[in-house]
Design brief:
Chain lengths: ~500, ~210
């Protein structure tokens, strides 16, 4: 009878019978209560609303995928038939389109004419293979991109190749090759490199832009002018027939105040791209710095190995980073940041010296700064965001040396610790590097990072640079993860589905 | 409305992409919600929703005109969700991100809600495939046993078996969360009322929770 009730198939008289039985029978009452609670808990699981326009967005994406598949199918019918691998590539192209649509959704604010961005991103997202030749900083630029292979940007003094395996960056003047981890989405990265979508991603509420009909080399085109409050402006021409970007101009201001023009034209779409363009062998006698995360990961592995059998064995870099509270944190990339709070499962809160506050909860980010307040939705939750901060700082700034990591057991305030000392080179700019010594102190009971010190080599002597003590409060102060825009502040809600 | 849908299905079956787009617009949100409850991730849910409609367009020629489009589409969606789950288990994706209503919640309450939701989602994901599908369709989407059976392409008896096993598994695994409910006699009446056979939602009418 209880099963019938659970299946919503117990008629009225049956319910009466069940109730009559449950009153005196404690065992059945308990079982019933637990089943009811399971159902209640399940019903309490919420699904975020994808937004009023979701049906339309999905419908558009589906129609475009079907049309693209049909076009390709017709093309294949003329050739050797549809290979399985080709179908997979089609799916990749669909995913790229999805990225574009997501970008559109994210960028679409409450202002009516934001479709300029939507059009541009859509036009860019449809690119499958392309070749662009133009000028950048007054010099010739050549760029290839291919869904199947990756991207290649060639400048007179620099070559950058990105594939699913890694990103290679060759500075021809210094003959130095930096190898980075691959961008998770090669295609997105390629589009950013090639077409300047990263400019659009930088667009903030308040930037000015307008769309107009124009002509490009005698052909009808849509012109999009963007003027950023951060000092750059860009103009894009979209071919009216192909709906693809045909020309881009950008102008930004150099440090000395002079304008720096950038111009890319002569895009070719659907070109055959030689896979060899995306292979890279470091040139002879080049200095190769492998900055991939995997190559510096051994540091913590060493620490864990040394502390085997102790609670530190349970420490991973993720746990260390994600469960701590940082106070008075001053880091390299954000010199104005003064405070950061983080609690796994709840969110993060960061404060800046100018009064700016950023609060993250789940995927939602509230930002309050001098320019106003905004609410956005990110791809990453707080866990990933903070982990990424750390990995990014390692990736960009720190590279291992041949000197082995030293692991020393010790004692602090009567409690056992282990001190891990690692040696790196630290890349401050493209040309300036320092020797760095990083000392991490792990407590063993409980096993977690309690202190980090960074020393720089100055004229052969180690000098203390940054020093951070980590606290683990039992309870956070109230209100740390609450955010209410102050009165009078203009709030733009950029979350998908709300704009 | 039903007549409109039937006409759209007929046109889409004849290759009219725009008509199919209208069907996608009508059912898109619902498929998204279903997909979300399988993967608990917005991006994946969007992928699954797209894949569902792409497949539906491919299979549309085999659709029996006059049948209900919604349940047929739902069945495809469930299959795509289950296939996605298989891929996901192989790749064992990143940590679960949990959507919860945050309005008015205090810090501790919010943390508690997130923890509970996360735990329940994880337990649902750990269920065997068919049990997971039954729980999502019946308990979360609010379909009846018959509708669940149609969406899963199995008998109602089979759905009941999956549901009962799933509930028992969840009850056992979530015992700590269920603490304090051992004697809930005060909730019996409420629970029974909310489970009456009269208020079963129909396909296409599932209320947002």
């Amino acid at each position: 009878m209880m099963n019938l009730w659970s299946d919503r198939q117990l008629p009225g008289e049956g319910r009466d019978g069940l109730v009559a039985h449950l009153q005196p029978c404690a065992a059945c009452r308990s079982q019933y209560a637990q089943l009811a609670r399971v159902s209640a808990v399940l019903r309490g699981l919420d699904v975020p609303d994808p937004g009023e326009s979701y049906g339309h967005i999905l419908s558009t994406a589906v129609q475009e995928r079907i049309q693209a598949a049909q076009r390709r199918s017709r093309a294949w019918a003329l050739g050797s038939g549809m290979a399985r691998a080709t179908r997979l590539r089609l799916l990749v192209a669909g995913a790229v389109l999805l990225v574009g649509i997501v970008c559109v959704a994210v960028l679409r604010g409450p202002v009516g004419n934001t479709s300029a961005f939507a059009d541009t991103l859509k036009a860019m997202a449809e690119v499958r293979t392309a070749h662009a030749v133009g000028t950048s900083h007054g010099e010739k630029t050549e760029a290839w991109l291919s869904v199947d292979h990756g991207y290649r940007i060639e400048l007179p003094d620099r070559l950058r190749i990105g594939t699913l395996e890694a990103t290679w960056d060759w500075d021809r003047h210094s003959n130095k090759v930096m190898i980075y981890d691959p961008e998770p989405d090669v295609m997105r990265r390629a589009l950013a490199e090639l077409s300047g979508t990263h400019w659009l991603a930088e667009v903030r509420p308040g930037d000015e832009y307008q769309t107009s009909d124009a002509s490009l080399e005698g052909k009808a085109a849509k012109r999009i002018d963007i003027r950023s409050h951060e000092g750059w402006s860009a103009t894009l021409w979209i071919d009216a027939d192909t709906e693809r970007v045909a020309r881009m101009e950008r102008s930004r201001t150099a440090g000395d105040g002079s304008p720096v023009p950038e111009d890319r034209t002569d895009f070719e779409y659907g070109v055959t791209v030689d896979p060899a363009l995306f292979e890279f062998e470091p040139p002879a006698e080049a200095t190769v710095v492998d900055a991939r995360i995997g190559s510096v990961r051994g540091i913590l592995d060493e620490a864990l190995k040394a502390a085997e059998g102790t609670p530190i064995h349970e420490v991973t870099e993720e746990k260390v980073r994600l469960s701590r509270r940082q106070a008075n944190w001053l880091d390299f990339d954000h010199p104005r940041r003064r405070e950061a709070w983080y609690l796994r499962g709840v969110g993060s809160r960061r404060e800046w010296a100018d009064g700016g506050v950023q609060v993250r909860q789940g995927r939602t980010v509230w930002d309050l700064g001098p320019r106003g307040a905004s609410v956005t939705e990110t791809d990453n939750g707080p866990d990933q965001a903070l982990a990424f901060d750390w990995l990014f700082s390692l990736k960009m700034q720190v590279f291992p040396t041949d000197r082995p990591t030293e692991v020393t057991p010790g004692e602090r305030d009567g409690a056992p610790i282990v001190q891990v000392t690692s040696y790196f080179t630290n890349r401050l700019t493209a040309e300036v590097t320092h020797k760095t010594k990083l000392v991490l102190v792990f407590g063993l009971h409980p096993g977690r990072l309690i202190e980090s010190s960074c020393y720089y080599d100055v004229a052969g002597e180690w000098r203390l640079g940054e020093h951070t003590r980590l606290g683990y409060p039992e309870k956070l102060p109230e209100g740390v993860f609450e955010f209410k825009p102050p009165p009078g502040v203009t709030v733009r809600d950029m979350r998908t589905g709300r704009g | 409305m039903q007549g409109d849908e039937t006409a759209l299905v007929a046109r889409a079956g004849a290759g009219d992409i725009q008509a199919f787009g209208s069907l996608a617009e009508m059912h898109g949100k619902r498929v998204y919600r279903l997909a979300y409850r399988f993967c608990w991730n917005g991006d994946d849910a969007h992928d699954i929703a797209q894949e569902t409609f792409i497949r539906a367009f491919e299979y549309l020629r085999g659709f029996r005109q006059g049948s209900d489009f919604g349940p047929w589409l739902y069945r495809i969606a469930v299959n795509v969700c289950l296939a996605h789950r298989q891929r996901e288990q192989r790749a064992r994706r990143a940590a679960l991100l949990v959507p919860v209503e945050t309005g008015g919640a205090g810090e501790e309450e919010l943390a508690e809600r997130i923890a509970v939701s996360s735990r329940v989602q994880e337990e649902i994901r750990r269920l065997p495939r068919r049990q997971q599908a039954a729980v999502v369709l019946f308990e979360l989407e609010g379909l009846s046993v018959d509708e669940t059976a149609r969406a899963m392409g199995c008998s109602t008896g089979s759905v009941k078996r999956h549901l009962h096993r799933a509930r028992e598994t969840l009850r056992r695994r979530l015992l700590d969360l269920l603490a304090g409910t051992a004697d809930a006699s005060g909730g019996v009446e409420v629970g029974l009322q909310s489970r009456s056979a009269d208020d079963e939602p129909m396909v296409g009418q599932t209320a947002a929770r």
